[in-house]
Design a protein that fits this description.
The complex is a heterodimer.
Chain A lengths: L5 H10 L4 H14 L6 E4 L1 H16 L11 E5 L26 H8 L3 E6 L21 E2 L2 E5 L5 H9 L5 E6 L5 H7 L2 E4 L19 E6 L2 H11 L28 E5 L9 H16 L3 E5 L2 H22 L18 H12 L2 H13 L6 H21 L5 E5 L8 H5 L3 H6 L5 H5 L4 E9 L2 E9 L4 H13 L2
Parallel strand pairs in A: 2-3, 2-6, 9-10, 9-11
Antiparallel strand pairs in A: 1-3, 4-5, 6-8, 7-8, 7-12, 11-13, 12-13
Helix pairs in contact in A: 2-3, 5-6, 9-11, 9-12
Chain B lengths: L25 E10 L39 H13 L3 E2 L2 E2 L2 E4 L9 E4 L6 E7 L5 E11 L3 E3 L11 E3 L6 E7 L6 H18 L9 E9 L4 E8 L1 H20 L7 E6 L4 E7 L9 E2 L6 E2 L2 H10 L4 H12 L3 H8 L2 H13 L2 H18 L13 H12 L5 H14 L3 H7 L8 H14 L1 H8 L3 H14 L6 H12 L1
Parallel strand pairs in B: 12-13
Antiparallel strand pairs in B: 1-10, 1-11, 2-6, 3-16, 4-5, 4-15, 6-7, 7-10, 8-9, 11-12, 13-14
Helix pairs in contact in B: 2-3, 5-6, 7-8, 7-9, 8-10, 9-10, 10-11, 12-14, 12-15, 13-14, 14-15
The chains are: A alpha/beta, B alpha+beta.
């Protein structure tokens, strides 16, 4: 029997036919049973049961409403939930209990979401496989193959979304591809919105000009249901857009007449041929349905997006991570020495290796003498790369490419990759992220039993086109 | 390097531009940090100006730099910064953004300060000193104040320090000058002018706000030293006086001046080396992309320009013209928005002469006696009570001395000035007839003094006035007595 979708579940929960406390208990049991996969950094059992009880009471008093009513929602660890330990996967944030809800959490709660826990990730989002877990954290395992990675950095969110045999969606976050990548590796839908469409207030920063909170679900409609609930203007985030856009899945999804651009560079060198083939198969299906398919070249993005992205992301993250010094929250060490010595001790003992690497590289890129050559040049390159996309969107509704160059790799393979080789894995996801463009990754098929993702990218605030294209493809499966 | 011990005599000619020899020319540049008196902080809605209250009661996740929190710009602070920049003749940048200045220090909630780097609010302005000299202003930018560090048993002996975040995030403007000031006195005059602007624009709390400056001083042709974080105008002048003397002495001895950062000790009025500066500190500035760039239209800038109040130079001219004040008195009164408003208020119920006498004579000298800016006394005044006091004076019911004493009692002890007059029997009881009798008695008893006076001896006049004053128990006016004596002797 096909599992109930999140939308069907919410509709039923609002009628009162589901006892939400009982259901939440059941789901928490399943969450605890999934422990060996390490999808969660913490499970918010008390909060979830408390919310379920309140929602049950609402049903009784006839006030059951909300787009996410009673729906179990997991949240990436880097998003603050009031009173729930929020560590962004880092030991340096041990014991940090936010005194406030991130705006997305407040919105989700207001829509009736039940927050079940904080999902595992690369420390502060610094990785492509969730294998750069912070000190003392466990690496999430792919639910389809225990030997393989979930992808990153929103690995726990994608793993749980694929694993759950009950209605569930996940609030995740992408800086350079951290939603699309794990969605691709786990075979779920990962929706990254236009930069600014979803408030970042309450997000533990990786790189402020790149971070976007988004959503995951088993299907396009589930991920857009969640994204619609958490999007919207927020005066507490000054980069938040004051735009109202529609995510509503088209009633009869059709690609007919859509102008789809196939990004040539992302089907060539460095891309697994099996992955290319599966992505092309999907594109052909859309063409059959009446989509107008044409190849397009994005040479600047193919060449410069990765270096520009990593310089900007690391420069910004090195300042974001400066605040962690064991003074106000998070990990503390025994007090001794000058403040400098103390701060160094706290940071040396509690940041993982990749975090330290990015602090060092990011600090270097913004020091005087190097700032012009690296940070400022990367910022200029970014403008050029955005313009290349803007030109492309004059001719196309959406662009398409395989999400990741490979299916989920084995941990043994990841260990052999150098940092540069790992960064190169983000080739296809980084350009859209650097340009702040909305994109969605959905499953296109299996390669040796592992999912292969296909990614659609649209112009700023054109989320509706993504829903249209991705739903059309989903309907053809 | 051990510190050179140099005796400093304040106000010594050496540090005065007028007496400098060509090789003794000094250059001073200031970076002034002014707290703005907005209701809330620069990037959150916490109340500002709660630094003297219970520590850590005016802070939130934003000004504590908690993970996940984000800054949102206080429009009012921006408005204030624009007003100052416009009043100081700056060019306003139509688009600017904020940057992160990263350095590790316990008073920094995020270990970076949100400030402006590439493009400030305003650039290339100036302040004109009384003599007409223009001190160029390089830039004015907006930034956040760090938290306050409290070393309970003193900076050096405390082995811990406490942090109060009530100050964290209070809006500051930094006014950076070119090195155009040639003496500590000029630097002081610059600051006096700057505070006049702040007073007229009503962007600074003179009672509780702080004005700090980093003072750069060099003897022409030599390296410069920076005296960090000097609080208050008087201290800036003192620190610069010491530093000018110290550097000039070194130059005189043929010694090299080292590029360094120095601190100012309020107690000894001396500066001492904090750290050597081989090169500029590297703060690794990058754009703070949590804050959207500010984009202003010409129209918005013009609207703020038009909203600027009448500033002190215009006001001085108007007061001189409208109330017949001397240029000097008009400048003193217009030198502070508060004084000028007080004057104009008193001039409604009293003559301009009386109002001027009270404001620029009595009130200003009380403030100076207490080492305060007139603004700092504003909360002590009950204007309606003082108006009644002035009216008593104008009607001749009390003399100058009584006016002054009652004013002091009112300002320093919150005493109702009318009660003070009554309780101390300061109403003039002596009628002119009685005074005349007292004077006649004094003249009759001192024929020698009278004779001397007739030959033009001023001393005997003072002697006779004194006698008559004592006789009247201070209730007669010396001027009145003098007039009667002169009449009698004619």
């Amino acid at each position: 029997m096909k599992a109930q979708s999140a939308l069907e579940f919410v509709a039923e929960a609002r009628t009162g036919r589901i006892d939400l406390e009982e259901n939440t208990h059941k789901i928490l049991d399943k969450v605890f049973a999934s422990e060996k996969y390490n999808f969660f950094n913490s499970v918010s059992k008390d909060l979830a049961l408390h919310q379920a009880k309140e929602l049950n009471a609402k049903v009784k008093s006839g006030k059951a409403s909300g787009k996410l009513f009673g729906l179990p929602v997991s949240v990436k660890d880097c998003i603050c939930v009031k009173g729930i330990e929020s560590r962004a996967g880092s030991r340096i944030l041990s014991g940090y209990l936010p005194v406030f809800d991130a705006t997305v959490i407040a919105k989700a709660k207001a829509e009736g979401a039940i927050i079940i826990g904080k999902t595992s990730q690369d420390e502060f989002g610094f990785g492509t496989f969730s294998a750069n877990a912070g000190l003392g954290f466990k690496v999430p395992k792919n639910p389809l193959d225990f030997e393989r990675a979930c992808g990153g950095s929103s690995g726990g969110s994608a793993g749980m979304t694929a694993f759950a045999d009950f209605p569930h969606v996940s609030i995740s976050e992408s800086t350079g591809g951290s939603i699309a990548c794990p969605a691709s590796f786990c075979g779920v839908a990962g929706f990254t919105p236009t930069y600014g469409l979803v408030s970042r207030y309450g997000l533990i920063d990786y790189a402020n000009s790149l971070d976007k909170i988004g959503s995951m679900g088993k299907t396009v409609s589930e991920s857009s249901l969640l994204l619609e609930a958490i999007a919207g203007h927020d005066e507490k985030d000054s980069t938040s857009l004051n735009e109202k856009i529609s995510f509503s899945p088209a009633k009869s999804p059709s690609a007919k007449g859509m102008k789809i651009g196939v990004i040539k560079e992302f089907f060539g060198q460095g891309i697994n041929s099996g992955v290319s083939r599966i992505a092309w198969d999907s594109i052909k299906k859309l063409e059959k349905e009446g989509a107008k398919i044409r190849e397009i070249s994005l040479p600047l993005n193919a060449k410069y997006a990765i270096p520009a992205y990593y310089i900007i992301a690391m420069a910004e993250s090195s300042t974001n991570l400066a605040k962690y010094c064991g003074m106000r929250y998070g990990a503390h060490e025994s007090l001794s020495g000058s403040f400098n010595e103390y701060f160094s001790k706290v940071r040396s003992c509690n940041f993982g290796e990749e975090a330290k690497r990015r602090i060092l590289l990011g600090t270097f890129a913004r020091m005087s003498g190097f700032r012009d050559a690296y940070y400022l040049r990367a910022m200029k390159a970014r403008t050029r790369l955005i313009n290349e996309f803007k030109t492309a969107f004059k001719d196309f509704d959406v662009l398409v490419n395989p999400t990741m160059p490979v299916p989920a790799p084995k941990f043994s393979e990841i260990e052999k990759l150098s940092p540069i080789q790992q960064y190169a894995m983000d080739l296809c996801t980084v350009p859209a992220n650097l340009a702040g463009l909305p994109h969605i990754s959905i499953n296109a098929g299996l390669l040796q039993k592992m999912p292969v993702g296909i990614m659609f990218t649209a112009g700023h605030l054109q989320e509706e086109r993504l829903v249209q294209a991705a739903s059309a493809l989903e309907a053809l499966k | 390097m051990t510190e050179q011990k140099i005796m400093v005599k304040p106000f010594e000619a050496l540090a005065d531009a007028r007496f400098q020899k060509p090789w003794e020319k000094i250059m001073i540049g200031l970076e002034c940090h002014v707290q703005l008196n907005t209701d809330s902080k620069l990037f959150c809605s916490c109340p500002a100006g709660k630094e003297t209250e219970e520590p850590n009661t005016a802070c939130c996740e934003v000004c504590l730099g908690m993970p996940g929190s984000k800054p949102a710009l206080n429009k009012k602070a921006l408005d204030y910064a624009l007003k100052v920049a416009l009043a100081l003749n700056c060019n306003i940048n139509e688009k600017f953004f904020f940057s992160r200045k990263t350095y590790f220090y316990p008073d920094m909630s995020k270990n970076f300060q949100i400030t402006q780097y590439e493009i400030p609010v305003g650039e290339n302005g100036f302040i004109e000193l009384q003599g007409g000299k223009k001190i160029r202003i390089r830039r004015i930018h907006l930034e956040e104040d760090p938290a306050a560090l409290i070393h309970e048993s003193g900076l050096l002996s405390s082995n811990y320090c406490l942090v109060d975040y009530n100050r964290s995030g209070i809006p500051l403007i930094e006014v950076v000058t070119e090195p155009d000031m040639a003496s500590p006195q000029e630097a002081r005059e610059f600051l006096d002018q700057l505070t006049m602007f702040l007073s007229y624009l009503d962007v600074f709390d003179f009672e509780n706000g702080t004005l700090k400056a980093d003072c750069n001083l060099s003897v022409v042709g030599n390296e410069r030293a920076e005296i960090k974080n000097v609080t208050g105008k008087k201290s800036v002048e003192k620190a610069l006086e010491f530093e000018a003397k110290r550097q000039l002495e070194l130059v005189k001895q043929g010694k090299q001046i080292v590029r360094e950062t120095r601190g100012f000790d309020e107690k000894t009025l001396s500066t001492k080396s904090l750290r050597k500066k081989e090169s500029e500190e590297d703060y690794g500035y990058i754009t703070d992309t949590d804050l959207a760039a500010v984009v202003l239209s010409k129209k918005e800038i013009d609207a703020i320009r038009k909203s600027l109040p009448e500033l002190h130079s215009d006001k001085a001219k108007r007061l001189a013209k409208e109330f017949g004040l001397s240029d000097y008195d008009a400048k003193v009164i217009a030198g502070s928005r508060f004084l000028s408003e007080l004057f104009e208020e008193f001039a409604k119920s009293s003559s301009a002469k009386t109002a001027n006498f009270f404001v620029s004579g009595i009130f200003v000298s009380i403030a100076h006696h207490d080492n305060k800016e007139p603004e700092e006394l504003s909360s002590m005044l009950d204007v309606s009570q003082l108006k009644e006091l002035l009216s008593l004076f104008e009607k001749g019911k009390i003399n100058e001395k009584a006016l002054k004493e009652a004013a002091i009692a009112h300002i320093t002890k919150s005493k109702n000035p009318l009660d003070f007059i009554r309780e101390n029997g300061l109403f003039k009881e002596a009628s002119s007839g009685e005074i005349e009798k007292i004077v006649e008695r004094a003249l009759a008893a001192n024929p020698k003094a009278v004779a001397d006076l007739k030959t033009g001896n001023e001393k005997s006049l003072n002697f006779l006035v004194g006698l008559a004053m004592r006789e009247s128990k201070g209730k007669a006016e010396p001027r009145e007595i003098k007039r009667i004596i002169e009449e009698k002797i004619k």
